[in-house]
Amino acid sequence: MKLYRIKDAVVAFFRNRTFVMVLWVLVCLGSMVVSSVMVTGLRQKETYYVSLWSYAVGRLGVFDDNDPLIMEIIKNNTIPFVITDERLQVEYYHLVPDAIIDHPNRLRKLIDDYSSLNNPVIIKEWGGRQHYVFYGESLVLRTLKYFPIGQAALFLMLLVLGHYVYRVSNDSRQNRVWVGLAKETAHQLGTPISSLLGWIEYLRSQGVDSDVVDEMQKDVHHLQKIIDRFSKIGSQTELSPANINELVGESVMYFRRRIPRNVSLDYNGLVMAPVQANVNSALFEWVVENLLKNSLDALQGKGRIEVTIQASQNWINIDVKDTGKGMPKSNFKKVFEPGFTTKTRGWGLGLSLSRRIIEEYHNGKIFVLESEPGRGTTFRVQLKRLYL
């Protein structure tokens, strides 16, 4: 049992993203420190090598690039260098391109660069003349200097990739849970709704006010729509041409009979020319209802909701505007995040689901068009217009 507990603790510890970040930073810093120590040691070694070679050449008495002994000394050298006389005239060079040697300005810049990296080494000949050795860094040293940067970039890339894989895996698991919960909810609601339909028919047979029974019938029909929506979650969504004016109008008419007396709900879609779009009617009506509910919550029992449809050549704009409490601009995007809510009750999923339905299923757009604290909010849904 102790081994299992230790294993679980270790797994939980490594799943902690803060620990992973700290570990990554420590590994990068450790790599940079080790590389810095190695670079310092290699630079000292190369400086010692150049100094030793220069001393050996000086001991021979005169610099001669035809001398086989001198050539043997520098033959396996991996450090680029330029040897000049006292007037900085090049007498010999190694691992430096001819294009630089033949270009005075580029040569001067190279000498300045080498001088900033390493102090020139002086070769003193017996005759009293002097030569100067300007040298740079070997390929190994240059590679080792930039190795920590590449290593840090690689670690960062792996960290981002790991985080992305974790997020995708976690989202996939959560999606499966929500899909299963939605379908099970739809299944469980089927039985009481069937019973309610039976009771409605019974009330009709008992001579109950037909207006009351009709409204109950509409509520049960609305529940059936909700069941249909839940059953479609996770399934392939089929789109078909529909009259947007009528779909939005049905939701508006349903809400108009059920809103508080001090709230007015206006709609212009039934007095304008019909506009068509490819939609899934059940899911699209869900979006409209979510926006209407959101506006009702913002009004807190008093105010006005205005639903308008506008059509351009390529797009249909459905605006839901209220005179409620509004929101700051910083919340324009946050309101569509799962779990974000300013209400004391609710899970903050309505607008998140609405965005997924519009953007992923219908290839449309949904966003906050305008809002200001104390002056209300306008949500806009955009759908691609269809011409039949």
Task: Outline the structure in words.
This protein is an alpha+beta fold and 388 residues long. The chain folds into 2 domains: 13-137, no CATH class; 236-384, Histidine kinase-like ATPase, C-terminal domain (Heat Shock Protein 90). Helix content is 56%, strand content 17%. The protein has 10 helices and 11 strands. The strands form 3 sheets. Strands 6-8-9-11-10 form a 5-stranded mixed sheet. Strands 2-1-4-3 form a 4-stranded antiparallel sheet. A hairpin with a 5-residue loop joins strand 3 and strand 4 (130-135). The longest helix has 67 residues, at 139-205. The mean pLDDT is 80.
Keywords:
11 strands; alpha+beta; four-stranded antiparallel β-sheet; 388 residues; Heat Shock Protein 90
Q: What gap, in angstroms, lies between the N and C termini?
A: 69 Å
CATH architecture of the largest domain: 2-Layer Sandwich
- Range of strand content: 15-25%
Shape: rod-shaped
Helix/strand structural class: alpha+beta
Give the count of helical stretches: 10
CATH topology term of the largest domain = Heat Shock Protein 90
Give the averaged pLDDT, no decimals.
80
| Total domain units | 2
How much helicity do the residues have?
A: 55-70%
Q: Could you name the CATH class of the largest domain?
A: Alpha Beta
SSE series: HHHEEHHEEHHEHEEHEEHEE
State the major sheet: 5 strands, mixed
Question: What is the secondary structure topology, with strand pairs?
Answer:
Blueprint: H1 2-15, H2 17-60, H3 68-74, E1 81-84, E2 90-94, H4 98-101, H5 104-117, E3 121-124, E4 130-135, H6 139-205, H7 210-232, E5 240-243, H8 244-256, E6 263-267, E7 276-279, H9 281-299, E8 303-311, E9 315-322, H10 350-361, E10 365-372, E11 376-384
Parallel strand pairs: 6-8
Antiparallel strand pairs: 1-2, 1-4, 3-4, 5-7, 8-9, 9-11, 10-11
